[in-house]
Structures are given as C-alpha cells and as structure tokens.
Amino acid sequence: MKKQKFFKLFLLALLIIPIISACSSQTASYDSKEKLGSQINYTVTGIDAGAGIMSSTQKALKAYGLESDNWQLQTSSTAAMTSTLDKAIQDKRPIVITGWQPHWMFTKYPIKFLKDPKNVFGKAEHIDTVVRKGLKTDKPEAYTVLDRFHWTPAQMSEVMLKVNDGVDPEKAAKQWIKKNPKQVQSWTKGVKKVHGQSLKLTYVAWDSEIASTNVIAQVLRNQGYKVTIQAMEIQPVWASVATGAADAQVSAWLPKTSGLFYKDYKGKFEDLGPNLKGAKVGLAVPKYMTNINSIEDLKNK
Ligand code: PBE
User: How far is CA 260 from CA 34, 36, 74, 257, in A?
Assistant: First the structure.
C-alpha cells in the first residue's frame, strides 16, 4: 500500500514539475512586434566589470539615449554570458550581449554585431604587444621575438576553439606551433637562443588572451626562456608592464577597448605594434532578431 501511494505521488511530481518550470521560465520567444526592451528587462548581458567592452557599452547606452530609457548593463563573466546566450538561443529568446571577435561565440552561435552609427565601439581594432621599458637592452632576443609576433583572427580563433573544447591552453599552443612552423620561424629567424633566462608575461584570462599569451610564451620557451605567465585583472596587467614587474603583455585592444589604460600609462611602456589586425568589439544579438540591426533599434523597436 505504502509503496503504491509513493508511486502515485511520484507520478504527480513528474507531471507537475515541468508545468511549474515552464511557467517560471524568464521570458518568451522573441516577439518582433513587441518592444524589445520590455521583453528582456532592458538589459544588456555583459562580462567582467574591468573589461573595456563594458565601459564602451556604458558609453553606448548614454550616447544612444538608452540609459534614460531604463537600459542597464549587467555585469557577469564571459562564461556566464555565453551560457546565458546558449540558453536564450536554444529557446529562441531575445538577448543583447557584449560581443567581440575573434571569439568562438561567433563560430558557435548564429549571432550578429549591431551597427554602431555613432562609432562608440570604433570600427576595426588591433591588438598590440606592449613591453616594459628597457626590455630591448636587457633581453634583446625576447624583444625581437615579441616584436615580430603576429597572427590572424582565424588563427587565434583556432586556438580558442580548442581550449573551449577542453584542450589545456599550453597543449593547444604547442599544437598550433607545430602546425605553423613557417610562421613561427618568421618570428624567431636569426634570434640567438638563450639558456634559462626568466621572462614574465601578464594577461587577463579572457579566451583571446589565454590563446595569444600561451602561444607566444611557448615560442619563447622554445627559444630557451623560462617563461611564467600570470593572469590578473586588466589594470594590474598594464601596471605590471609599466612598473617593470612584468616584461610584456600581448593583450592591448586598441584604439578604443584598452584605450583608457593606454592613455593612463603612456610613456611608461613601449608599444611594439599590432600582433593581430581585424578584431572587433560591439553589441551583438542572435540573427533571428531580424528587425534589430543597429544599436539605435534598441531604443525604437
Ligand atoms: N575583450 C576581450 C576585452 C579585451 C579582450 C574584448 C573582452 C575587453 O577589454 O573588453
């Protein structure tokens, strides 16, 4: 008897739980006839507070008159943002995210950048290699390799995707180096090998920076350096190179995204120029939001 009662309750639960969870699911599928803001609580889903894309988004909310329209930027992390994006796309729900390229989010999900007619995020960005003053005389071999380091958005994406698939970043870097000997040789050609000199690189644990920092660190290890890489917040990354606590960083998204730090620390570092061209930063939405194509549409549609 007891067993039967339990079984009935169990069946009831099986029936009720999905109904409850369906009712409490945050928002419905995207409805192009309804105002977008009210469908997503006037929220842009963002990443960690220190990221340049976050301050640019705040500027955009002001510039496009969205702030006065109750729009807000939600702080989280890249992992939380992409997981929210993943769920939204599964249910065809509306969502606005902070997006950038190179990143696997553009490979994995059908999303598009919103046009930015006021040019708040800037057009294309480049990622520069920034080294401490005096590196050229202290460690000329490392300086030369860092100065020559450059690759393409597609190459960076390849490493990022691997890491996203669960490959250890150092291993993914080694595999990329093995697959691209000519390119790596063009960075190291004629550079004398060293024997265990130490070298420190700092970076922020964003997917793009994990990829680039691990690749260049591994190339420098192959040149004989004892390279340590240390993850930290973006501001300490710039400070570490400015004070000489670190030798270099390869994560300066310019002119806009890291522009403030570039200005703040100007004169206290050496900019070796782009290691990657054709990066892009902005707001992005799923492609099924066909009537939302510009940041201006967030206000009007
Ligand atoms: N990002 C990735 C960083 C730079 C690299 C776009 C998230 C940012 O500062 O916004």
Answer: 38, 32, 21, 8
- CB distance 249 to 241 below 8 Å: yes
CA 33 to mean position of chain CA atoms: 32
The three-state secondary structure class of 256 is: coil
Structurally, at CATH architecture level, domain 35-123+282-300 sits in: 3-Layer(aba) Sandwich (3.40)
Fold type of domain 125-278:
Dipeptide-binding Protein; domain 3 (3.10.105)
| CB 53 near ligand 1, within 6 Å | yes
CATH 3.10.105.10 boundaries in the chain: 125-278
Distance CA 150, CA 117 (A): 30
107 or 64: which carries more pLDDT confidence?
64
Q: Is 286 exposed, middle or buried (0-12, 13-18, 19+ CB in 10 A)?
A: buried
Q: How far is CA 295 from the centre of its chain?
A: 20
Q: How much is the pTM?
A: 0.86
Contact criterion met (CB below 8 Å) for 50 and 233: yes
CA distance linking residue 273 with residue 240, whole number of Å: 19
Mutate to test the pocket of ligand 1, among 44, 45, 47 (most ligand atoms within 8 A of CB): 47
* Cα–ligand 1 centroid distance for 212 (angstroms): 13
d(CA 198, CA 135): 12
Output phi, psi for 270, to 5 deg. Answer: -115, 125
pLDDT digit string (tens) for 214-269? 999 999 999 999 999 999 999 999 999 999 999 999 999 999 999 999 999 999 99
DSSP H or E run through 100: strand 97-101
Q: Are 60 and 52 in contact (CB under 8 A)?
A: no
- Ligand 1 atom closest to the Cα of residue 50 is 9
For residue 33, the model assigns a pLDDT of 82
Q: Look at the block and give the residue holding tokens 């691209």.
A: 180
Tell me: cis bond preceding 102? Omega within 30 of 0 counts: yes
